[in-house]
Amino acid sequence: MIRLALFGEGIARSLSPVLHGAALASVGLEGRYEIVDVAEGALAERFGALRRTLGGANVTTPHKVAALSLCDRLGPEAAIAGSVNTFAFEHRAGGAVEVIGESTDGAGLLDQLARDGIAVEGARVVVLGAGGAVRSVACALAARRPDRVHVSARDARASWAAVERVRRVSPGLPLSCSGWDDEASRAALRDADLIVQGTRLGHGCAPGDAEFHAAVGSLGSLLGRSATRARVVDLVYAPAGARETACVAAARSAGLEACDGRWMLVYQAARSFERWTAKTPDATAMYAAAWGLDACGEA
After folding, report:
1. How many CA atoms lie within 13 A of 177 on its CB side?
2. Element (H or E) spanning 126, and its range?
3. I want to staple 242 with a disulfide (CB 3.0 to 4.6 A). Which of 110, 221, 238, 277 is the partner?
4. Cα–Cα dist 225/206, whole Å
């Protein structure tokens, strides 16, 4: 039996156990996927106590950058992005366990974009946010030859740090960064073909919540300036029973085509699972377990 886990803070409602339970069933493996709720700053202690018992693990907010220091080596995507969302374990002679840090967030987003027919090559891309997942996503997008990439974050220094990561992937790519709502951000949005929303605005809340409406207002003030041709992809996913995230609601109110991050969540989870087990899970079964499907295979 394989033991898998997710390390994060405030993750009691995470869908990862459902997704990976479906993944295990789809390939005929016995195992369990556990939630390990860890306060910021306490990851090293909790991870150290469990690492020898695990066959694989994920790590999420707020630990994706802190996880770097717990790895013996990094996969190429994690090394470039400076962010880890997957721990893989390789057993060595004498009982030693080597921890490899991977990042599947960027590849998961590219899988979703391919599924939805959204082109990256030649696109003018704006990324909102600068956290660990956003770093991975921005680097993955840059590798697909967009026309340019602009990163906008509430902390302008964080957006600059994210751009420096992206520069390692595509040294000649036109890159820019800014604060959340300054003129450079507004200009980039007016010119964008693809907008990727990577902040946690609206995460875990549903229509009717005060937090949801506040997030719609914040995002609407930005997205309302975008060209109507822009496609919006929210890395946040709608919780079970909700039709849309705050970002998707704000985008649609502005006349923009938008989707949330449900399929990205599935695809990044599937890539982690394949790294641990060398088996390819059924992504559609994973999605159906979390959100259900209609006859057309859509939510």
Report:
1. 20
2. strand 124-128
3. 238
4. 24
Amino acid occupying residue 62: P
Instruction: Please check whether residues 122 and 220 belong to one and the same domain.
Output: yes
Largest CA distance in the chain: 61
Q: 233, 295, 278: which is closest to 105 by C-alpha?
A: 233
- Which one of 20, 63, 64, 203 is the catalytic residue? 64
Q: Which long-range contacts (CB under 8 A, 24 or more apart) does 227-231 make?
A: 227/190, 227/191, 227/192, 227/193, 228/254, 228/255, 228/256, 229/193, 230/189, 230/192, 230/193, 230/194, 230/195, 230/256, 231/118, 231/193, 231/194, 231/195, 231/256, 231/257, 231/258
Regarding whether 210 and 152 lie in a shared domain, the answer is: yes
Residues 130, 113 share a domain: yes
**Does 256 lie in the same domain as 214?**
yes
Calpha distance 114→108 (Å, rounded): 10
Q: Catalytic annotation on 64? A: yes
Q: Are residues 48 and 174 in the same domain?
A: no
Q: Are residues 163 and 194 in the same domain?
A: yes
**Among all chains, which residue has been given the structure tokens 């994920």?**
58
Note down pLDDT in tens along the chain; length 299 residues.
999 999 999 998 899 999 999 999 999 999 999 999 999 999 999 999 999 899 999 999 899 999 999 999 999 999 999 999 999 999 887 778 899 999 999 999 999 999 999 999 999 999 999 888 899 999 999 999 999 999 999 888 889 999 999 998 899 999 999 998 889 999 999 999 999 999 988 887 878 788 888 999 889 988 988 878 899 999 999 876 778 999 999 999 999 999 999 999 999 999 999 999 999 999 999 999 998 864 334 44
Look at residue 233 and tell me if it is in a domain: yes
